[in-house]
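Please study the protein below:
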Amino acid sequence: MSSHARVRAEPASSPDCAEAVTRRYQALALARCGRQQEAAELCLAIVEEESDGRTWLASEVVAALEAPDLGFAGDLAAILTALERGSVWRPAWTGNHTRPVAEARLSTSKLRHDLDQLLHLRRQGVALPLGEIIADYEAALKRLAGLGATRAPLTDGDESTIGRAFGRLVHVADAPRVARALSPSWDRLQVQRRYRKSRPNVVVIDEFLAPEALQSLLRFCQDSTIWAGNRYAHGRLSSLFFTGFNAPLVLQIAEEIRDAFPLLIGERHPLRQLWAFKNTEVLPGDCSIHADFAAVNVNFWITPDDANLHSDSGGMVVYDLEAPLSWSFGQYNERPDLIRDLIARHRPRAIRIPYRQNRAIIFNSDLFHGTEAVCFRPDYLSHRVNVTMLYGDRRQDEHHAEPEPMQHTPTEVVAAWRSAALSRRRNWP
């Protein structure tokens, strides 16, 4: 852990403010000293007893990312994830004290994915009572077979059966640091030059990760029950830094990316967010166009090529068009109708990047982009997995050419430099 990163505590809203601040300092100090279980137990008390306890802990994770002190950010994020998504099996210190998973919703696509994952873990010989959990999942999936694409809250019966595992950390695979995470096969300086000279700023790197890092990351994504987000169409699942996409190897990759590109990222653009998405079903093309308000977007794919049934698809399209400065998070990230209308009026160049395992795309994060049609084999180990790491703020990136004001901009929008997902004070989901 970095010695220069600060230990701080935000003002608390409890009746005894001084005592609350002291507890927060103690929790951070324990985590920094590596006393994770003691820190977690104190954080649990803070979250349960103080109305802003969760917001405080989430903000400390973001502050550690900004420091940057990625190791400490990972330790705190692991505590937060365990408090919200721990199970009776993982981590060990939770014991029988587990909290309900907030806003958990059942969907047939996630139930099917989780069942396939549990069967995979059983084949791997994971030492857990998986037979009983699998039976509960099979019963729930049969009961909800007619649910379609909708999501439903867990019933009391669900809570007592699959609720022990659904959306929780049942098993997390080890993904330790390796000797070298990024492959030495590509030239760092050349990539930076290509990025700075290209218009728009888009560069593709093959053989991005070192083989050991690629295989370890793939195992982590396949074996870890971290795929909590299921609010997306077409069976897409997400795992965020705050919900389990967090391991020493993941943070090592983020660190090495930062250090590999001192002219693009370096110390100026701290890591803002990282996540992974998994496609469990066929995804139609042109249905996920969006922008991410950061300075630099690093996106890479890790599933083997032979899983892709359409070798000329499954990749990404990046448009030579930046999101208007006046658009809000909801518009540039959740309004594909507005984005399509903007693209139809401006007719930007579309840059197609076909899918390849271990291929990375580094680009100006404000550019509209989306996943091409995805048709991978339906077996569990063939799900398409992509990883995204976002660095910096748009207004601090000297490589951005600020676009001219857009005509016909919706009048109801409010200015936003960056996504609410990157806001330091966001009340994280």
Summary: Residues 105-164 form one domain. The radius of gyration is 22 Å. The mean pLDDT is 87.
